[in-house]
Amino acid sequence: MTELGLEDRARFEQLVLPHVDAAFNLARWLLRGRADAEDVAQEALLRACRFFGGFHGGDPRAWLLQIVRNTCYSWLEKNRPMELSMEFDEELHLQPSATPETLAIAGDDRKRLILALETLPPRFREVLVLRELEGCSYKEIAAITSIPIGTVMSSLSRARRQLYSALANPCHKEVAREV
Amino acid sequence: MRCNFADSLLHGYFDGELSAPSAAAFERHLQHCIPCATELVDLDLLRDRLQLAQLYEPASASLRRKISAPLRPIAPAPVASQPHLWHWLAAAAALLFVAIVLWRVSPGLRTDEYRAELAGEIVDAHMRSLQSGPTAGIASNDEHLVKGWFDAKLNFAIPVRDFANGGFALKGGRLEVMEGRSVAVLVYERNRHPVNVFIWRTREPDTSPRTGSRQGFQWADWRKDKIEFCAVSDADPADLDQLHQLINSSV
Prior knowledge:
Distance between the termini of chain A: 47 Å
Radius of gyration of chain B: 24 Å
Helix content of chain B: 40-55%
CATH architecture of the largest domain in chain B: 2-Layer Sandwich
Radius of gyration of chain A: 17 Å
Number of helices of chain A: 10
Order of helices and strands of chain B: HHHHHHHEHEEEEEEH
Number of helices of chain B: 9
Number of strands of chain B: 7
Structural class of chain A: mainly alpha
Shape of chain B: elongated
CATH class of the largest domain in chain A: Mainly Alpha
Low-confidence stretches of chain B: 73-83, 105-110
CATH topology of the largest domain in chain A: Arc Repressor Mutant, subunit A
Largest interface: A-B, 43 and 47 residues
Largest sheet of chain A: none
Order of helices and strands of chain A: HHHHHHHHHH
Strand content of chain B: 15-25%
Oligomer: heterodimer
Strand content of chain A: under 5%
CATH topology of the largest domain in chain B: Phosphorylase Kinase, domain 1
CATH class of the largest domain in chain B: Alpha Beta
Largest sheet of chain B: 7 strands, antiparallel
Strand order of the largest sheet of chain B: 1-2-3-4-7-6-5
Low-confidence stretches of chain A: 88-96, 171-179
């Protein structure tokens, strides 16, 4: 942190620190747990601080969330590479935290939503979290996730359909599979 | 059954992200497409469900501390790059210090004029906060989080409540330091108008609110349970009285 000049530190406090909640929330949902999210969010903030000199204007929340996302993905690659491969086969026999059984058992709607969200591949989970929890625009989602803005809408469409099926058919194998 | 529009435009329409012509085209389609109309309702229900479940998870107080600790030695830095503001702040602090000394030495000096003068200083601090944009502090509507943030920094406990239901949504808080004395500032929003509530410890007995205005800003100052509150805003004076009641009933 010492690498920042006095003025930059003030700007960092003013522009970036108000988005610590957003940073933690995204990390929590990408990593599916609070403990890992604490560590990774902290690491991401340190990284943001280190590279703050390269931030010239723009949306500080999107800038920070982009760093958080990349830090989360590199953490997942190192610690849980299996989870990332979910993106490609979009099937779920990889030790998800939610099995169809746990989904069926979870009576409480909040728990059911959490478990259903966590069965989605990270790529779909993140667009839902950014849109529905963080209230990001398509433009911001595109900037944070580095997907073309034209693809944001179709990603959201697929993510929502996967969430529906995870919620509606917790007892079937189709959970989190493309409809 | 799904139609082609469901993939191409429906979600953009639902999210309010379509251009005006595309939105109009989709609305024309919607008039005779039952699957799309149904899906739109389902999306709305899903969004409500997600909102209702309160899935947003804010950072813990300990994480917040870990992140801001290395920055703290120069914490009041937001104004560091503007020397004239420092001078102003020093002058204001000196004034406040004199005021506080007089206040403590002789409660009799605490006349209405005097209180108005103090409120004036606070109105200026309010204006300063509007000019400098979001100040370092905590931006959150989670009352426990905000309270935790203050508890770690103050040697007295302040009441932190989100009155979103009463029309005063908690936005966060920050600290102002005036002559070695910490003044907590709670930030609320009332009909898009920011309301700053300055809070500090006092030894004086409770009072009902005294109000006034200065440079287009309203202020209301009152004491309750050894805590003094001064609310400042450009909103309606009746709003400040309402906030006073909400705060007092929560203390």
